[in-house]
Every structure is written in C-alpha cells, then in structure tokens.
## 1
Amino acid sequence: MSGRGTLLQSRQRQQRLAQAVAYAILTLGAVMILIPFVFMLSTSLKDKDRIFTRSIEWIPRKQIRVEVSGKTVKLFRFAKSLGDIYAVPVEELPRDRVRVAVLTRRPAETVDPRFLRTTRVVDWNEPNFRFLLYLRNTLAITVLALVGQVLSCTLVAFGFARLRFPGRGFLFIVLLSTMMLPAQVTMVPLFKLFVSLGWYDTFLPLTVPAYFATSAFFVFLLRQYFMGIPIEMDEAARIDGASSWGVFSRVLLPQVKPAVATVAIFSFMGHWNDFLGPLIYLGNPDLRTLALGLYAFQGEHSVDLQLLMAAASVVMLPLLALFAVAQRYFIQGVVISGVKG
C-alpha cells in the first residue's frame, strides 16, 4: 500500500507540475498578445510629443503647461539624439498651421518672452473623424445584414437537415463547393450587376445579399446542429398536427439557439470589420463606415500616431465588449460542427 501511495503522490506531483507549466506558458502567451493592445490604448491617451521618448511610458503623463506673457499654453517636448527640445505655441496661422517658439531646455512654470526668439512653423491639423456618422452607417449595415444572414441561413439549413426533396445532397455539395470560390472571381460581375440595378452608393449591395443565404459556412454550421437533434421530436410534433414551419419555429429553433448566437456573432464581426465591400460600393463620404473612416483618417493623419491609435481603439471597443459578453459562444461555435451530427 505504501508503494501505491508513493506512486500516486508522484503522479499527482507530476500532474500539478505539468499544469503549472501549461498555465505559465498560457500566461506568457496572453501577456505577449495583450502588449500591443495596451500600447495602443496608452498611445491613444498621449500627446504627440510624448510618444517617441527614450523609454516607453505605459502610463501617459499629464500635459505640461507653462505661462507666457500671462497666457497659459501647452509645452511640447521632442526627443532628439542630442537632448530634448521644448517648444511653446506663440501664433496660430492660416491653413491649420501654428508658429512655435523653440527652447533649448525645459522652462519653469513661467517663460520669459525674451527667450522666444527662435521660431518655426509646424502643421497643426485637427482630427476630422466623424465617429457618430460612421458609427450610424456601420450599425445600419451590420444589423440589417446580421438579421438577413441569421434568418436565411437558418431556414436553408433546416431545409437541408429535415426536408426530403430530389437533389438535396447534390445541392448541398454545390453549396459547400462555393466556399472554395475566391471572392475576387465574383467581384466584378457583382459590381456590374449592382450598378445596373442602381444600387451603387447605397447600403443595398452590402445588406440585400445577406437575405439569400450567401454564407455556405453558416448554412453548414446550422445544418450540423439540426442533424444532431433527434428526428423523433419532429415526428411527435407532426403527429400533434404541426406543419413544417411549426416544427422549425416551435420545436427545433429553440434548441439551436447556441448555433444561432454563434452565427450572429460571426456575422456581426464580419460586417463590422468589412472594408472591401464599403470601399467598392460606397463613394459618398457621408456613407462611410468605421473601417473606411479609419482608412481615410490614416491618410490625413499618418504622422499623428496618437490620433490613429485613439481612432483604432474606438473602432475596436464594440468588438471587445461583444467578445466579453459572448465569449462562450465563440468557443462553442468552434466545436459545434465537430460534436453535433
């Protein structure tokens, strides 16, 4: 007995050691993945002169202000190879430019105007990111397309899983084969079709196709879940007088809520981050989505890293909130097709 007890304790120690090593590796990987996000959030809260410093400042410092001729202004610091250079704005110029006075050392709380002789003109572009407008456009496209994909893909998946009709297997294979078709192949024909319908510069090309079950992956995912539900439940409902729609809406649909939630989450993410579709079909700046707005903002403020990080953080926050709320559906969605059916 003592030998068995010693062997059991040894195995338990080995399991605990292996578990500790696994947790340590996972923690290290999580930290490495989170570092870029933390850097992005930290940079978005900094002033431009505090980004490129000798050491990384993870916690942004408060903007330093000094008094010049009785007026409080911002103090900017630029890191150079021979030392830091400070500057204060002294005059606003047309076309979003400003004249700054260059100082050779960090001043005290009050700056003597006699030391403000060396000046230079720099760009002073204010950010032009119409977040509320882009958010409204993105939400409109995302919600309409999400509803369409959930409804159409659920109905088509039910038909392939439960209804009997000639050519069902062949049609399902054809549907799955469309997953191997690159999107670039249909890009030009679809564009010509939507232009001929007068849908260019509208949300219709980005929302209407979602109501025709154009995602073969979502149909396959839902079909596999439907196949995992016993057929006896359908037969019992039909004995009670339920039609096919009654079987779908009252018997099966409540049981496939996890799969429907998974499809909704993936659809939300895909349309929220969609860049190519709005870029092709939306030419009006007032119809831009967040992805297009962020791209245009990057072109206007390519050197303003803090503004780019702030805009990217704002665009990413809804996805982070969605992941925090529906994390278990993300995980379940990966294994649904392997467990069910």
Note: Residues 79-83, 108-126, 337-341 have pLDDT under 50 and may be disordered.
## 2
Amino acid sequence: MRSIYAGIWLTLAVLIWLYLLPSPLKIQAQSNVPDLLPELIKPVEFEMSAEGSDAGLEGILRVAVEIDKKGNVKHAEVIGGPAWPCSSSPKGSISHLKDAAEKATLTAKFAPAHHNGLPVDSRGVITLVIGKTSKQAVMEAAAADLLKIDKESDVTVKEGVVNGKALRLPKPTYPGNASNISSQVWVEVVIDKEGRVVSAGASYGPELLRETSRKAACKALFSPTLIQGIPVFVTARITYNFVPSLFR
C-alpha cells in the first residue's frame, strides 16, 4: 500500500543520491564505480527561517556535497531550488535560505565511500524539502483518495511531471547568450485549487536557462485536481527541453 504522510515538522534530507567521483589526479587510475557508496548516518536537520516562510519559499533544495575519507561534508552548495511565488522576487530571502541550507548540510555525517577496500573522497546530492505546502504533500494524488477531505481542507497532493496535463503550457524564450545550449530544465511548481501555477523554481538545468523556464512555468494553466470531488493544491514538476534548432 502506498504510504501517506500529512506533514513533516522538520525539513529533512528526504532523497539521497550519492556517487563516487575520484580526484583529478586519480581519475585514470580508479574506476568510477565504488565498492561501497557513502551512507548517511547523521541526516541534515534544517528548518527554514521565518523570513523564508514569509517570502513564500517552497519546494526542494538540491545541495551538492563533497565528502571526505572520514565521512565529513567538506563542501556544500545549493545547485537547485527553491520555488517562490510567481508574483514576487525575494532575492534576499533566497540568498539567505541558500546560505543557511549550505551551513546546515555541513553538519551531515556519512560512512565514507570505499574503493578497493579503502575509504575515498566522494560527491553527491542531498535533496531538502522546504515550505509548508511541499512538506504537507502526500506521496501521490491517488493515495489522497484514502484521506477524508472536506471543502475546508488545505490538502496538497504530490504529482510527478505534469506537462501532459496542461491546458496551457507556454514555451520559454531562448536567451541569446544561451542559444547554443541543449539541455533539460526541471521546474518545481505549486498549482492552486483553480489550476494556476502560483509558485515555481528551477531545480535542475543550466543557470542561463532557469529564469526563462520559471517565467514560462508561471504562465502555465491546468485543470483543477479533484480528490473526492474537492479541488486541492498540487506540487509537481514541469520539464523543458531546450534544443537550439527547435527555437529558431
């Protein structure tokens, strides 16, 4: 049976993807496949500040980490997220959030990766969930059918990629300084009960293509998602494939 959760009080590292990446001096001497991947033994505990909450920051933060041979995180950098309201531009709050998330991630602890039986440096990505709406999302829209919902409920369901469900999905413009870049961009969105995108933020893709993708996502429109006949909020992802020949 699919698991359901209604809320998470602390923002935790919920998705961990780790892989070995040898140092440049050893890259030819070592295989990219470790004997043993690093294992998280002390997760990140991070609670967004009141400033971030008031600014409406939501979604996920993808934090790239460098892990040393002792399992300590020696460097952390936010490489994706957050989402924020389509009607605002809280640059200061976003910057403060990223700084705080990176600082918190440095406290994580791992059992180190091993290669040929010896501990080695490794790199990976930790994903943090932030914001009330995102943290309260159930695992899948179908699973929400098991909940008792009324018209006063602020239930949020989590869906995957929703491009195919859009009533309107404007194409992003291709920035002139990125006209030769071919890539995919992921935009995490919050869709309200009327089917409008009210919050968006790129979590993956080249920096030069993220803002144009976010602006396009904010203009998307969907049919309301109904659970037991009642419209609910949705957290989901819109993906954009940038191919230069298709934008000319």
Note: The domain at 137-247 is CATH 3.30.2420.10 (TolA/TonB C-terminal domain).
## 3
Amino acid sequence: MVGTSASATTHERYVVGVDLGGQSVRAAVVGSDLSAAEIVSLGSEARNGAERVRAQVVDAVVQAVTAAGLTMADIASVGMAVPGHIDPATGVIIWSPNFGATVDGQFQIFLDVPFCEPLSMALGVPVVAGNDANVAALGEFAHLQPEGVTDIVMFTLGTGIGGGVVSGGKLVTGSSGGAVEIGHHVIVAGGRQCGCGTLGCMEAYCGTDAILERAFRMIEKNRASTLWDRIAGDKTTLTPLMVSQAAEDGDETAREVWEETGYYLGIGIANAVNFFNPQLVILGGQIRKAHGLIDAAERSMRRHTIHSLARSCRIVEAQLGNRAGVVGGGVLAMTSPG
C-alpha cells in the first residue's frame, strides 16, 4: 500500500490511476511498485454532459489523494482509462457512445470532447488518457513484467469484447489512439449483425447478448435442460452466471453453450496470435470465469493458429481483476512523456 508518510520521508511523487466507466469513476494513488492505495468510487454521471463527468473525475482524484494521506503537491500526474476512442496526443474524446447529454430530447454521445486539458487545469497536474481496454492491458502487462513477458494480447469479455496489445514492451495504440478494437474484427463473413452495424464481429458471437441468445436457442431444443428450472420459465431472468453454474453441475445443454462460445472466441484469439505472436493471451472480464469456456477457447485457438505461434503462447486469466484500469492508468501516467 502507499504509505501516508512517504512523501515527507522520501519526497517520492506519486501518480493517480483513474478508471472511468458508464456507471462509476474509480481512482487510487499508485506507487512506483504498482501498489494502489484505497480505491475511491463515485458515480460517473455519464449521461449528464462533459462538464459534470469531468467534475466527478476531479472529485474522485482529490478524494483518492486524501484517502492516501497525501496532497495534490505529492502527485506528479494522472492517467485515465476511458471508454471509447480517445486521442492520447490531444486528450480529446473522439467518440464514446455511453457518455453524453440529452439535448432537445435527444441523447447526444460524446464527439470530439476536450477532456484531459480541462482536467489538468482543474487538478494542477498533467492528465493523460487512453482507451479503457488498452489501459487495462497495460496494467496487466506491467504486473507481469517481472516474469520477463514482452508481448501480450488481452481480451476483456463482457457485454462487449474489448482488447489491448503490448508488442515489444510497448502499448499498441495506432495513429490516433483507436487501435485494437478487437471485438469488432470479423470472424464470420456475412454473419450475425453486431451492435456496431457490421456483420460477423467477434462481439456478435462472444458478447453477453450472443451467449444468452445461444442459450435460448439450445434450451428450446432441449426441454430437459435444468436451465428451465433455474429461470422458472422466464427467459428474461437468464444470465451467463446461471448458464455457467448449470454447466458446472453437469447440464449438457449449458456445456454446449460454452463449447460453442469457446469455439468462436478461439477463432478470435487465433487471429490475434497470428497477427501479434504474443507470449500470453490474457482473458479478463467476468465471462472468462464461465465453466469450460477457457478450455473450449484454447482448443479452438490451437486448431486455427499457425502451430509454431500457438506453441509459444499460453492463455491465462487476468490477475488484476477490477483494479486493471486503475493500475493501468497509473502506469500510463508514469510512462507518458512530460
């Protein structure tokens, strides 16, 4: 943990990592050893406009610094994980579909919203930001560096599919910070429609909605599945956790759900392995815990990957959990120029 008297004794300056989400903004002071002090969580006010969201970020940062027994004078910079596409060079949110404000009765998402500069002026320290999945990957990578890892691909599995890549020790961000929208690469040409409008995206086969639709389809074909008892005939109550528990208890239909999901997930992983030749593929997000999913994905990945690349790659679970964005934000702050 970050010591409350460290600044007085060593004059070390800390950074603050921030994980901004659609429901909450989480912040903590991060030390040079990547230890995080108490995480402060506030509502993000995501649908109440940029000014309100920025105010919540400022409050979360100040409260996190105070909780660590420090002052802003002890803080060198702030690093943020932000959903959507943010240009790391300008600190402008190019788009973020879950953030915005209602204008004349219509919800308008964040488009070209200045973000880091106003925050920097309010806090009195430099503020840098990156896509949330990329920053989470950076956090996992920094956590793993003592093991000699230089190349990773991370998938975050949930309602959507996010991802990040570290290649040769450097985060891959692309020309304007929008690289590695891995959930939106096509794994089935002309396939299911994704929420982004494209057909056949990985997210359309491996996101939460796709998993539940798969489960509905399969239990309709097997009325003996215990999932019917679990939902008491009401499909709207079905969750991925229920399907996982049923699979763990031996329900064959539930196991088929995760086998098929793992098949498609494995194709997406195989593509990433063929592109980036990582040492590790890291799976984050709650869906990764589904019974049998990782085994099914690994089998599929190895069937669809160049053998020599698959041989040097392992699939592992994320280690930082919901701290990845905060720790990654801290790493981003430590490693960004200026």
Note: Residues 6-125 form a domain with the Nucleotidyltransferase; domain 5 fold (CATH 3.30.420.40).
## 4
Amino acid sequence: MRKTWIMILIAIIAVSSVFAGGAPESAAGGSTVLSLGTASLGGNFFTMGAAMAAEVSGKTDLSVTAQATGGSAQNAILVDSGEMSIGMAQASTVSIAVAGTDSFEGAPCENIRTMFNYSATPLHVVVRKNKDVSDITELAGCRIECLVVGDGVEMTTRKLLPVIGVPLDDVTLEFSGNRTQAASRLKTGQVDAILDATGLGAAWMVDVLKTNDFDIIELTPEEIEIICDAFPEMSPMTIPAGTYAGFDEDIQTVGNWTTVFCNKDLSDDAVYSFVKAIFESKDALVQAHSFFRDLAPENIVGSCIAPLHPGAEKYFKEVGVI
C-alpha cells in the first residue's frame, strides 16, 4: 500500500495542466512517455488517473503522466487530435463524441479507440411497492423524481420512458432539488419512483431501500435490447444480489461505464502493455479508489462505443473474454 501511494504521489507531482503535446515520446532509458487526461485536480477522475499512471509506470516500460483537464469532453477532443495519448470519459460523452452529435455536432471524434471500461453506474428503477408495478412499462400514472431540471436523472427519464412505450404525458415529473430531498420525498410517499443510474451501494439509495417499501424493477431482455439499441452509451448491467438488504437475487438492468480510450495511432504494444498492467493491478487500484472495484476484462463485452484498439483486443482475446 505504501509503495502504491508513493507512486501515486510521483504521478501527481508530474501532473501538468499545460499540454505540451500528447504524442508518445521516448524518454531516457527507452521508455515511452504517454499522457493520460483526467479532469480537475482533486476530483475522482484525477485521483483514478494518477493511480493508473503510477501502476502502469511501475510495471511496464511506459512512463505515464496523469494530466488535469476539463474532463470527459475535453479528453475526447485532445485524444482525437493527438494532443494527448489516453483519456477518460463517461460513456455518454464517448457516444456523442463518436457520433458527432450534441456538443460535438459536425466534429466527430473519429480517431479515438476503446481500451477498457470500469466504474459501472447501473440504472436503478426504484418504485414504491404500493404502486403494484412489476415492469418499467407499468409506470404510467406515477410521480417520478427527477431531482432538478437538466440533471442526468431527468435526462435519463426523458430518454428511456418513450422508447420502452411510456409516453411522458402519462407520468408526472417531480423536481425535489437533490438526492437528500428526493430520498425524503420517496420515503414519505410524495413521489412514487426514480430512474437513477448511480453507483452500486450509493448511500442515499441504501437509505431509501432499507425501508422495505420499494422494489427495484428488473428490465426484461427485450427492454434491455431496445434501450441499448436506441442509446449506444447504455450497456447491459447487473445489480448483484446482496447489494441492498432484502434484494437477494441479481437484477438485470442497463447503465453506463467510464471508458478509457486512446488515439488510434498509439502502438499496439503500448496499448497492450497499458491494459495488461491495469488488470494485473486491480488490488492496488481499489486501494487508491473504490470505483475500481468492478474493474474486470468482461466489462468490454458488448460495451464498445468507440472501436476497440487492436492492442486492447489482443489482451482481451488472450484472457478469453472475446
């Protein structure tokens, strides 16, 4: 553990938010120098990026530097242009970057390639038991919590319900302001349901579900297929049995990953070495940040938005997941 944090400290000291060019370079001793775009200093992405940089640098002939950036969207732009070697982003950002839609309208990121996925945020379809809802298509008439206008919870609700056959006119969208208020209003019956793509075991979700007044609605295979076909950023996911008290069976749903990606011109050997070192360092990475706890090669299956880099493909074939 002490060695891990020493290496992370070295990575943090090496951070620079001024981009001096991200193309791989050769350092003294023959190592390949790579830049890894994260987000703002002190945030989750930065902490995770520094941990990855430390582990890969310590296990390979790659010298990886975590760099503070503006986050997911900027990382996609910098990696696509070759100003940065590797980046991290939410799957939703990767999806619009590759498609050239929304904030990437007319400027698709055609040069980014997937390396691996981790940090699942599965969709929790939580409904009061007294509503007698057993399927997401039965939410008509419910008051659905959306937190605040423009929040991801509202966007998810507005996107998903119509594609699975629930017109938005058939539900009432409620805006409590934050998850603390939403939890209170759910528990007191002022709202009936929420569709929240959140980390497993989120404290506020535990608080709501421990009342035993709510169900987590499982999606059918057909619903999962419809949603994933409509929204490439979504992937099939599982809420494991035992994540919440009283829920003793796996619950099938959809959700988003955090995706680590690189420029298409990064060498196969460099990408293979990076990916292999990451998966062989899971224990140390989990010590650095709990969001690495679901790191697994299997996460890549059916969940590539940007094309898979050949170097990463070599690793995943080697371990038998593709």
Note: The first strand starts at residue 25 and ends at 26.
